[in-house]
Write a structure and sequence with these properties.
The complex is a heterodimer. Chain A has 15 helices and 19 strands. By secondary structure, chain A is α/β, with parallel strands linked by helices. In chain A, the strands form 5 sheets. Chain A has a 5-stranded parallel β-sheet with strand order 5-4-3-6-7, sandwiched between helices. Chain B: Pathway: Amino-acid biosynthesis; L-leucine biosynthesis; L-leucine from 3-methyl-2-oxobutanoate: step 2/4.
Chain lengths: 469, 212
């Protein structure tokens, strides 16, 4: 019999019962929550007179609606404020292991605070009413985004009704060149397999280039698994994982730690495990990536040119390219390096961790943003990230470069708060989605790494950070 | 949950691939703490030429006349015909809420994004996967025939065209049972509460750190 994949091991260790058609009740260890996708779930519980099955599984905080400046003035938008206050009230009524209300010193993006306080651990099942829950797969946890009805189901039963996914292995072997990051790896993979390439699959990322990534890099990569269509991304836990977790507040301690690590070391795909799909990339061939269109799969190396629809044989794809170029206000064959940006956003659950900010600061140090760039927002992923960055003086580097140093939150990744693009504005963004209107109605998004975003802020247009600019 | 059994409904074709949930219902409408009232804002940026805000009365907003939902021949449509990877992106269940609230009961596409696909079932919306060539044929027939309707029968798992051509579709027995009967899935799961408790006890014994 063939060995088991990491995904299978995680799945099988959480099956409470299985129906004859393969539908399972899957036990959920960690339930992350934010204010946008939870109010209707709590309301459903109330209406049915139900309680939370295990409130100690809940880690929550508001992040989508919270402003990133003038915290002393509170949340100005009354609808946003009500949603945040509703989360406060729901957690008060139903309970939680961890809750950081708006303005708490540790508040931040839920996918940043889970790992940094040790509430995300290898071997767990993790859910959140948020598609970027895939982030937590970086720890070897089976983590997936769910809808609000499922949030209610997990609250009430501690289980998820689900069927096993197919397994995909994406292997990246070799060394990444200087200036090429986990974000570029993620975008290169999506460029190769497409935004539906991972649909129906859980993707395990392996190979020497993945093992060489830091935990922050692995989180960036798994975060983007959903942009390849995969509900879950996974990296097998290793010494880096254990080192990251040791001494985190909610990580096991003493004997428990030793026992946990011994178990976590078994969380690897067996050498003879079978995958339903395999994809391979050569790390040395991956260049800094820039999206040019309105889907993350519409991506090119920085040295490339915007595609010409006339060269596309498939009619539906041609129409897709034409539509994307029109929305993006780009002419066919434009060199990526000639695309000028109006705004830059460095943040989001993809790229707002300390390593991301250090990388951006390295580029910004001693330089100034281009006069043509209207605004550069640096939005740390959490209060902890913000304090760490300030302790290292990164905030000063950014401010001296003419960037704005903000309070933590989701910010202009999806523009639910006041941080957004105006119609027609073009943005270099470290976030995860370049969909039409994502960063503000009519806004134009180019997805890049933190280094590439910082360089675009300085130069006023995209530049190849592997070369002097 | 609302049950779904059978429907004969007008088809509205949305001819673009990779329609994401940000397009289905833009972020500003996600500030609502309710489950209803999203229908008027379905596909808001494609449907209206101004920028929509929550609570806006949509009856007097300037519309984009060329968008399918605004075309007179598709008014009252209950079946949305779509292309590959429909519902990709954000997990927001507001997307099927908006689709259902607008009046669609069925979405047909060659493929769906996983989270959206699952969310539909929880809201009495039936997502049907048909082969790309079949979907293509339906797009053509729909364009050629004003008032084009499909008969969708969940018990028989078929979608039938006006000419009587019938296409079979798959659905898991569990989902079919829940949808046909409009079952409360939580109540269904809680029938197994003892099994969940037994599992939990064993799980805690094996990995106590998960319960600290």
């Amino acid at each position: 019999m063939a060995g088991k994949t990491l995904y299978d091991k995680l799945w099988e260790s959480h099956v409470v019962r299985e129906e004859s058609d393969g539908t399972c009740l899957l036990y959920i260890d960690r339930h992350l929550m934010h204010e946008v996708t939870s109010p209707q779930a709590f309301e459903g519980l109330r209406l049915a007179g139900r309680k939370a099955w295990r409130k100690q599984s809940i880690v929550a905080n508001p992040d989508h609606n919270t402003p990133t400046d003038h915290w002393d003035q509170g949340i100005k938008d009354p609808i946003s404020r009500l949603q945040v206050e509703t989360l406060d009230a729901n957690i008060k009524d139903f309970g939680a292991l961890v809750y950081f209300p708006f303005k708490h010193a540790n508040q931040g993006i839920i996918h940043v605070i889970g790992p940094e306080n040790g509430t995300t651990l290898p071997g767990m099942t993790v859910v959140c009413g948020d598609s970027h829950t895939s982030t937590h797969g970086a720890f070897g946890a089976l983590a997936q985004g769910i809808g609000t009805s499922e949030v209610e189901h997990v609250l009430a039963t501690q289980t998820l009704v689900a069927k096993r996914s197919r397994r995909m292995l994406v292997t990246v072997e070799g060394r990444l060149a200087a200036g090429v990051t986990a974000k570029d790896v993620a975008l290169a993979i999506i460029g190769k397999i497409g935004t539906a390439g991972g649909t129906g699959h859980a993707i395990e990322f392996g190979g020497s280039a993945i093992r060489a990534l830091s935990m922050e890099g692995r989180m960036t990569l798994c975060n983007m698994a959903i942009e390849a269509g995969a509900r879950a991304g996974l990296v097998a836990p290793d010494e880096k994982t254990f080192e990251y977790l040791e001494d985190k507040q909610f990580a096991p301690k003493g004997d428990q730690w030793d026992r946990a690590v011994a178990y976590w070391k078994t969380l690897q795909s067996d050498a003879d495990a079978m995958f339903d799909a395999m994809v391979e990339l050569d790390a040395s061939m991956i260049e800094p990536q820039v999206t040019w269109g309105t889907s993350p799969e519409q991506v090119l190396p920085v040295g490339g040119r915007v595609p010409n629809p006339a060269n596309e044989a498939d009619a539906q794809r041609r129409v897709g390219i034409e539509r994307a170029l029109q929305y993006m206000g780009l002419a066919a064959d434009t060199p990526i390096g000639e695309i000028r940006v109006d705004k830059v956003f460095i943040g989001s659950c993809t790229n707002s961790r300390i390593e991301d900010l250090r990388a951006a600061a390295t580029i910004a140090k001693g330089r100034k943003k281009a006069a043509s760039v209207k605004q550069v927002l640096i939005v740390p992923g959490s209060g902890q990230v913000k304090r760490q960055a300030e302790a290292e003086g990164l905030d000063k580097v950014f401010v001296e470069a003419g960037f704005e140093w903000r309070e933590p939150g989701c910010s202009m990744c999806l523009a639910m708060n006041a941080d957004r693009l105006a119609p027609g504005e073009r943005c270099a963004s470290t976030s995860n989605r370049n969909f039409e209107g994502r960063q503000g109605a009519g806004g134009r998004t180019h997805l890049v790494s933190p280094e590439m975003a910082a360089a675009a802020a300085i130069a006023g247009h995209f530049v190849d950070i592997r070369k002097p600019f | 949950m609302k049950a779904f059994t059978q429907l004969t409904g007008l088809v509205c074709p949305l001819d673009r691939a990779n329609v994401d949930t940000d397009a289905i219902i833009p972020k500003q409408f996600l500030k609502s703490i309710k489950r209803s009232g999203f229908g008027p804002y379905l596909f808001d940026e494609w449907r209206y030429s101004d920028v929509g805000e929550p609570g806006m009365d949509c009856t007097h907003r300037p519309v984009r006349a060329d968008f399918v939902l605004n075309q007179p021949r598709y008014q009252g449509a209950q079946v949305l015909l779509a292309r590959d990877n429909f519902g990709c992106g954000s997990s927001r269940e507001h997307a099927p809420w908006a689709i259902e609230d607008y009046g669609f009961c069925v979405v047909i596409a060659p493929s769906f994004a996983d989270i959206f696909f699952g969310n539909c079932y929880k809201n009495g919306v039936l997502p049907i996967v048909l082969p790309a060539a079949t979907v293509d044929k339906l797009f053509k027939e729909c364009a050629d025939t004003e008032g084009y309707q499909l008969e969708v029968d969940l018990k028989k798992q078929t979608a039938t065209t006006p000419s009587g051509e019938s296409f079979a579709f798959d659905i898991t027995p569990h989902r079919k049972h829940c949808l046909l009967n409009g079952l409360d899935e939580i109540a269904l799961t809680l029938q197994h509460a003892d099994e969940i408790k037994d599992f939990e006890a064993k799980h805690e014994a094996a990995q106590p750190w998960l319960f600290a």
